[in-house]
Design goal:
The protein starts with 11 loop residues before the first strand and ends with a helix. It has helices spanning 21-31, 43-57, 70-81, 106-121, 135-150, 181-192, 203-214, 232-242, 254-259, 263-270, 300-307, 318-327, 356-369, and strands at residues 12-14, 37-39, 62-66, 90-95, 125-129, 154-159, 196-199, 222-224, 248-253, 275-281, 284-285, 291-292, 311-315, 335-340. It has 13 helices and 14 strands. The radius of gyration is 21 Å and the shape is elongated. It folds into 2 domains: 4-159, Rossmann fold, CATH 3.40.50.970; 181-369, Thiamin diphosphate (ThDP)-binding fold, Pyr/PP domains (Rossmann fold). Helix 1 links the parallel strand 1 (12-14) and strand 2 (37-39). With 372 residues, the chain is of the alpha/beta class.
Length: 372
Amino acid sequence: MKLDFLEKYDFFTGVPDSLLNPLCSYLYHRFGISSHHIVAANEGNAVGLAAGYHLATGKVPVVYLQNSGEGNIINPVASLMNDRVYGIPCLFIIGWRGEPGVHDEPQHVYQGMVTCKLLEDMDIAYFIVGRDTAQDALAEQLAKFEALFAQGKQAALVVRKGALEYDGLKLHYENAYPLTREEIVQRVAAAAGKDVIVSTTGKASRELFEYRAATGDTHARDFLTVGSMGHASSIALAVALYQPGRRVWCLDGDGAALMHLGALPVIASRQPANLIHVLINNQCHETVGGMPTVANVADLPALARASGYKTVLRAENAAQLDAALEALKTAPCPAFLEVMSNSGARADLGRPTTSAMENKQHFMEYLQKNNE
Ligand SMILES: Cc1ncc(C[n+]2csc(CCOP(=O)(O)OP(=O)(O)O)c2C)c(N)n1
């Protein structure tokens, strides 16, 4: 499916997804990051931006998301955009991970099953786009969508794996920081020793899993937050509060932390004396194709400091990271460490070979056993 049909729209916002990579490349090259294309903190944030664009221009905005983000749009769609409230039109473009019958990771399976049902529940008309969808069929559907937009309704294109095509330049984001995320994950895991780690959604968790396997270590001290992007630090907080006898590390990403930034002051408000929050800042959503986040402009350590973390550190290279990890051995907590990273990743990075259920069970058993 070619993307020419998007030429008529001039406001796009959303959170990237690997199935939508051709769309992300198209947007990046058509608009860069600008007032025509805003990478939102989360999908609900994108709906708010879309609503403001419509209020200001009367035109129809486009919001793109992975189906994981449907949960984040439900509230502003139901209570703001719905035509029983303000009736704000919007075209959603949704990457369909976990489509029934197509193999995918555990975190996508249930979300994949309910993707279309949730759209029906939200009164959003939808059309499924696959590799073989004819351009004419799409045009016909978009004409029907136009009629819905005129009535203040929303509509969605649900995009199957491999359905979108874009021949232009591929989205590519780079910065000059020397450390890769994988090196940072490995150094932090080594410094954490026997402490537990709650790691964030995406490749950081996969890199942690591979590090344990490579060093012949147990996976039982790690909780891999494979889904629920942005919530790893909240999980880590509650583990820390209810396991006061051990140290808990959170391995976070910039995209994930920005997605639910309110977690920072919530963590600080409890002042957990055993929580270390490490944020790996590669300034982009590397796992799903490298769309930039706003972490190149936001001062994340300043946000942590203002939230009330007791120790706030930053590292840009291996020597600074090692010094920070040394300082964290005795630093008052909650502690926050931002580590700058480049956007590199290994092409042959594997995926966890244990199931999510096994991960949970082993982690809980580990916490229990070591409390006895
Ligand atoms: C609610 C939600 N929206 C989108 C995604 C798709 N997704 C998975 S990983 C990821 C990028 C995470 O970025 P960051 O935290 O910066 O980590 P990086 O991949 O750069 O290591 C995204 C957008 C998701 N899993 N959940």
